[in-house]
Amino acid sequence: MTDARLRRGRGSLAASFFVQGVTFALLVTRIPAIQDRYGISDALLPAFLAAVPILAGVASVTTEKVVARVGPAVVLRWAQPFVLLALLAVGAGTELWQAAVALGLFGLAVGALDASMNMLGVSLQRAYGRSIMLGFHASYSLGGIVGASLAWVGAHWHLSLFASCLPVVAVLLPLALVGSRWYVAGGDGPVQEEDAEKGSGMAAFTLLLPLCLVMTFAYIGDSTVANWSAKYLQDVLHSSEELATVPYNAYMVTTLLGRAVGDFGVRRLGAAAVVRGGAVLAALGFGLVAAAPGAWAGIAAFTLLGLGLSVLVPQTFAAAGRLFPGNSDAAVARLNVFNYVGFLIGSPLVGALGDAWSYRGAMLVPMVLVLVTVVYATSFGSRAARYGGGHERPRTVDVG
Hints:
By secondary structure, this protein is mainly alpha-helical. The protein is built from 15 helices and no strands. The protein has helices at 3-28, 31-38, 45-70, 72-92, 96-128, 133-156, 161-179, 201-236, 246-269, 271-291, 295-309, 312-323, 328-356, 359-362, 364-372. The radius of gyration is 20 Å and the shape is globular. It starts with a helix and ends in a 28-residue tail after the last helix. It is found in: Cell membrane. InterPro entries: MFS (IPR011701), MFS_dom (IPR020846), MFS_trans_sf (IPR036259), MFS_Transporter (IPR051788). It comes from Streptomyces bikiniensis.
């Protein structure tokens, strides 16, 4: 594969991550507008929101079977436009059933998109022979910042969700379709005969389990910040409503910064060291949030959280690719399910603990879970085993 083709593939995939970041942020930041448009009650809203990650998890598992036939590039080429059109459909309806169908289709398409994007990212990293996975997720974070900013503009000018999203989709849909022409996959490595016997179900799951737990814990932490940072600042630290919007924005910015420089850290120090450092920083951030005496201290703590959590998810996908080089697509598809597991657990868990105990105490739960990641850091490989940085052959097993 020529260097020029790899560079085009890397650029087009980064653009896909960016488009998805914009799209997802446009949806989640306008949930109040969706609720008002369709008259969804507070009691019913959690069911609607939970349906999206559940269906996404189902689609992620199904994608494993589809890519075995057509490849992840084909899945991504069609899933991304479908996600954009589903976003428009969410804003176009008027009846409750229409919202349910549109959100359901959005969830199914997102599951296929997330899985196929990360499959391509893992295979491209293998082809490059060095860490580039964090750069793709940095593009996603940048898209999230842009999408949240566009959503703020729409809310400020009292635009409907459809009116807010239509011009954005009109720009991003052609970009996604044109960019998809240059998607490339680096290809799976050969399965080593001495490891082939480990491919039966339980052995493969045992090897993947530590990464599944890390993925779950990382998304419990992320969903805690996304769903509770504003409420925590306003209700616990007694900030103004305007100031309560700052922590998540600061978290997104530092997540982008951490991912922008994270690949350099992996190349210099190795994936395991970067994951350990990120987990410790994230745990420290949650501890400081729980102990914060005031609003600005809380904002600083949430900012630190972004730096810590930023490296965990991309490196977990990359580690799955190293662990299963002969069948990385299947490993990524299964690992991606735990993205949604963490999302489903995190927000309700913190909310329930906050109501029953205290929100300060509730912040200690994701702190402990993220800190457990340090125990599993060896699953991310030694410095010698990282791509392009040593001579140790990664273990190769079949997850199929």
